[in-house]
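Hi W.,

Here's what went into the run:
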Amino acid sequence: MAKTVLVVDDSVTMVMSLKTTLTMSGFEVETANNGQVALDKLNAGIKPHLILTDVNMPVMGGLELIGKVRALPAFRFIPILTLTTESEASKRDEGKRAGATGWLVKPVGGNDLIAVIKKVLPGA
Amino acid sequence: MASAAYRGLEGISPARAGRIGAGEDEVPPHRRSRLRKARNRLLGQTALGLSCNLLLYLSLSYLLGPVFIPYRNQTSGLLLLFIALPFLIVQWINWVQACKGIAELGIVGTFSKTQLESVETRRMAMGEELKDSQPYIDVMHDQIGDSLAESEREVVEVIEQIGILNAKANGQREHIARSIKSGTELTESTHTRVENNKQIIVAIDMQLESQIEEFRNNFERIEGLANEVRALTPLIKVITSIAQQTSLLALNAEIEAARAGSAGRGFAVVAFEVRKLAVSSTQAAADITTKIHATCKKVDGEMAEARESLEQHEASSAMSHLVTDLGEMQSEFAKNGQLLLEVITEVDANYAESVVRLSQALGHIQFQDVMRQRMEHVQEALKEMRDHLQNMSEWAFDFTWKGDLGHHFKGMLEAHKGRYRMASQTVTHLAATGGKSDGDHSRPAIELF
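Here's what came out:
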């Protein structure tokens, strides 16, 4: 059964490229253009196996989203990867404290991305 | 004491003003004499002011009482200090102001009226120019924004095309896989049928072989019989010869009987009957010969046809050929099936490789988002620069401005270092300006916690 990935990014190009990359590798993809929309979708009942989120977004950023997702019992242990242009060490530590599983700095090659996802999502 | 024309220089420190006032460093040599005169005049004015104040103090003291006499009591001394101290403070302030005035004169005050007008004109022009920088920067800002939007549209188009291409390739691959599957099933089915047919054909072939063998035996028997019948022909000739000789003897006997007269009449009848029998025998022998010939001829014709047919059967070996053909056909099927399997395997491998390459290409497309964020940072910087230049433009016309710029390009540039998100931004900044980064971008691009 195909695993579902929730892609959260305010950039149309990022959402589309990630969706295409993941679909080509056999994943099903849900998308959201900011943290609030992603949170609404999770509360509405979608059950992704992994969340791939940007950090800097309008309305609700990625780190805030991670904190709120970790507060939901159903998603306490879901792998959450950040995919962002932020490469500053302090930001990474902030992400780690918020509960991120990993930190990926854009641009990340599709194959590297799939490899990381398969690493944190056994059976994918 | 400074005029409106050189208000903009009020931020100069007293120490610097002192140096300038003394005619050091900043003052060009050809202006030093004018500056020295101005300074002496101001010093003279200050000394005159002090003298006047002292005279006023003495006059008042003389009129109000001899408080200035040193041997008066302590109260009078304190009163003296109380009156004199404000005067001294006022004079010190006056002196500082005079120094500042001298300093300003060192820079501006030595300009002629024409030069001051030129400075004023340039100031106005610079103010206007600063003001006009707003639309210029706005246009550049919007150009960047539009370029980003355009590149985003194009990149979206590229991604869509890649998605379509991949979907088509995937659909084609699945289609080929389905075709191969049905082809393989067909090959296997054909193989099974051919195997069954081969067994049937082998059985039929064996049956035919048996029939041919039996046919051959029958043929040989018939041929033997025909030869035996043909072997009767000489015997018929012997019979014919005997019959002819008998007929001849009967004729002679008849002649002899006629010669004997009535005594030979009975013998003549017998001889006649014998001759008739001999003629009949000759006739019968001729008929038998004719029939034997006809029969032999017919048997020969049938035998020739049978031989030809047998030879054809033996030569063609039709059934064994059919079995061989079926076997070859099956091999061809198997070979083609294998070939198709290799094709789909190659197509599958190529598809997998194209997925890898397309994934990498899509990863590279993320540069658009990276570029967008860098350009947005530049746009913010342009807006910051625009606002700063507008403020400077307003200050250029504002004669009440106190000289506080609020922001400086140097400070703004330094502040950018703290707002960079990417290592590449910091690298570019440092390459242009030198210096060290405050941030730490040294960790790997992919980090699992």
